[in-house]
Amino acid sequence: MRTPASELSARLSRAPVLLVATPSGAVLEVVVAATPGLRLVGLAGLPVAPPVGLLIPRCRSVHTWGMRFALDVVFLAWPPGPDAAARVAAVSSEIRPWRLVATRAAGRLAALELGAPRAEALGLAHAGAAVTVFQWPSTCG
């Protein structure tokens, strides 16, 4: 089920989407930053946190320059394993605008940006938790 385009900015509504099951049992719609422009701009400039997450594949650091709300950044082992589960490698919560956050966690990672404080509510606030990808577009790297 795709979030209506009217609830997303134009740049997010054109991006590939995947669906993931979270430890809390919720299904989260995740927009994939598959282009260099979306990777750079991300959620910056949006007036409020969108109802979806933003996944940035091959990412070890995130900036919040130009943000108007705080972020939870969940670094996931990426791509998911054969069981379609992506494990949480590190979490940075309540990152305020105009900050930079990075992780030293080992392995290939992706950053999942969520409007704060959603990581805790979704059960993603601790290393080792996992999301299960059950809708996977071919452009998700």
Give an account of the 3D structure:
- This protein has three helices and nine strands, in the order H-E-E-H-E-E-E-E-E-E-H-E.
- The protein is mainly β.
- The chain has a single domain, classed as Jelly Rolls (Sandwich).
- It has a seven-stranded mixed β-barrel. Strands 4-7 form a two-stranded antiparallel sheet.
- Strand 1 and strand 2 form a beta hairpin.
- It starts with 9 loop residues before the first helix and ends in a 6-residue tail after the last strand.
- The model has no long low-confidence stretch (mean pLDDT 89).
Compose a concise summary of this entry:
This protein has 141 residues and is mainly beta. The chain is built from three helices and nine strands; from the N terminus they run H-E-E-H-E-E-E-E-E-E-H-E.
Keywords:
3 helices; single chain; mainly beta; globular; Jelly Rolls; 7-stranded mixed barrel; 38% strand; 141 residues
Strands in their spatial order, largest beta sheet: 1-2-3-8-5-6-9
Taken in chain order, the helices and strands follow as HEEHEEEEEEHE
| CATH level-four homologous superfamily name | Protein of unknown function DUF192
Proportion of beta-strand residues: 35-45%
**Mean residue pLDDT:** 89
Q: How many domains comprise the coordinates? A: 1
**Structure classification:** mainly beta
Task: Work out the helicity level.
Answer: under 10%
Shape: globular
Low-confidence stretches: none
CATH topology: Jelly Rolls
